[in-house]
Design a protein that fits this description.
With about 375 residues, this protein is α/β, with parallel strands linked by helices. About 40% of the residues lie in helices and about 15% in strands.
Length: about 375
Amino acid sequence: MSTRHRLRLCHGGMEGRALATFEMFLKHVENFDCELVEEAGADIAVIDTDNYLGPYLVQAHRMLFPKRPMIHVSLKGELARDALSVWIEKPVSLEKFAHGLAQALAAGRAPQHDAKASGSGTDKEAAGRRASAIVQDQADTRLSNLYVGSLPDLDPADAGMMERAYYQPGKYLQGIVEEACRIAESTDAAANIVHGEERIMTIRADGQAYETSLDRRSLRSLGLIPLSKADFRVVTVNTGADANRAWRAIAPLRWELALWAARGRIPTGVPIRAPIRLVRWPNLTRLGLPPDAMRIAGLWASQARSMPETATLLGIPQRHVFAFFSACRSIAAVHCEAVPVAPPTPATAAPEAAPAPKRRGLFNRILGKLLGNQRADTAQDHP
C-alpha cells in the first residue's frame, strides 16, 4: 500500500465557484491528503497566476514566506518562477496536480506528515502538535513583523542614512486609495479604483467608506508591493448606482494599507525631529497593531516627542515608532509640531576683555608723566 502524505495548502487567486471546485478536486488527489488552511500554517502555496492579481499574490507571498514551496497554476506558465516554485499547466488533472505536489515537496523539503507511519500514534500526534505549534508561532511572528519590516536604527544626524527611513505612499495602494478618497470628496461622487478592466474597490462619495470584492489577502498583496500607477485608474461613478453597496468604514483600511506600505518607515517629507502629538486616540482594539503601539500612543498622548526620542525613551526599535506614526498619520490621528530651533551658540568672550583698556589707560598716564608726554596724560580712558 502506498503511503499517503498529509499536506496543508493555502490558495491564492481562487474565489467563489472556483475555490469550491478546487476543494472538491483535492479530495481525489492520489497519494496525498490535502487540507486547505490559512496561509500562516501552510506547507505549500497554490496560486492561480492567470488571475489578474496573480503577480501581486506571488510577490507578496514570497515576501512573507521566502522558504515555502509554491505552485503556479497557469495556462502558459509565463510568470517568472524561483527555485522553490513549480508550474502546473491548465487544464489541471489529478495526475498533473499530484506530480506538481511531489515536485514542490522535493524543491522545498516541505514538512511531510506521514499518516501511515509505524510507531506510537499518541507520541507521533504529540510531536506533530508541538511541531505545528512551532511552525505557527514562526508564521505569526513573520506576519506581525510584516508591519515593521527589518530597518535597523538610524542616526538622525546623518541625513544620508535617514533617507532609508522614508517611503513614497503614492507608489503603493495606500496612495491610490488616498487619491480616490480625495476625488470622491471633491466631486461628491463615488469613485471606482480600476485595475485593467477589473474594478477592485469603490470609495463612497463622502470618502469615508469603501466596498470591495477582494479578500484581505488580496488587499494585502496589493498593499505590500510598489505598483505601477499606469495599471490603475480612478473613475467617478453615479452615486445613486451605489446606494445598496455593503459599505465598510475606510479608516481601518487606510490604517492597514499604511502599515503594509511603510513596513517600519515614514512618508517622505515628514521632519524626523518634529515632536509628535497624538490628537485622536485610534480604536486600537479594532486595528492591526505594530509592536509597542500602546506604549507609543500613551507617550504621545501625554507629551510631544520626536520619533527618535520616542524610541530612546521607550527603549524600542525606531521602526516600531515609524510604523505606528505612518498608520496614525493615514487617519489624521497625529500632529507634527514645529521643529524646535536650536538656540544660537553664544560667542566666547575674551578673558578680561572689558578691563583691559582701563589697564592700558592707567599705564599710559604713568608713562606720560615720566616722559612728559602731555598727550598721553590727557588721553581719554575707554572702558
